[in-house]
Specification:
Layout lengths: L5 H6 L1 H6 L4 H13 L1 H16 L12 H20 L12
Helix pairs in contact: 3-4, 3-5
The structure holds zinc ion.
Length: 96
């Protein structure tokens, strides 16, 4: 499970949104979000709050954002298919 990385990932949220993180850091960040519902939810909330505050606007999203996310999603989907022969859902259905 990738959850030991959550703290590290969430610590980078500001850098990611500010565009100060390099491509490797962003790939790792979005790769983690693809596997981790908690961080994905947190990232969306954080981004929405920042957007509402006028700090990050939609046009501030890096031009290669879709490219990066596409590469991450293809990589994670491919590995899921390879392991079990058909696509699986991310292990994010956690109860407390
Ligand atoms: Zn996480």
């Amino acid at each position: 499970m990738p959850f030991s990385a959550c703290r590290d990932v969430l610590a980078r949220v500001s850098d990611i949104l500010d565009g100060e993180a390099g491509l490797p850091a962003r790939l790792r960040f979005h790769g983690h979000l693809a596997m981790c519902d908690r961080c994905r939810d947190y990232y969306r909330q954080f981004r929405d709050v920042r957007a509402a505050a006028g700090v990050v606007l939609p046009e501030d999203v890096p031009a290669d954002f879709d490219e990066v996310m596409g590469a991450v999603l293809r990589a994670t989907q491919k590995s899921s298919v390879d392991q079990v022969g058909r696509p699986t859902r991310a292990p994010g259905h956690r109860r407390r």
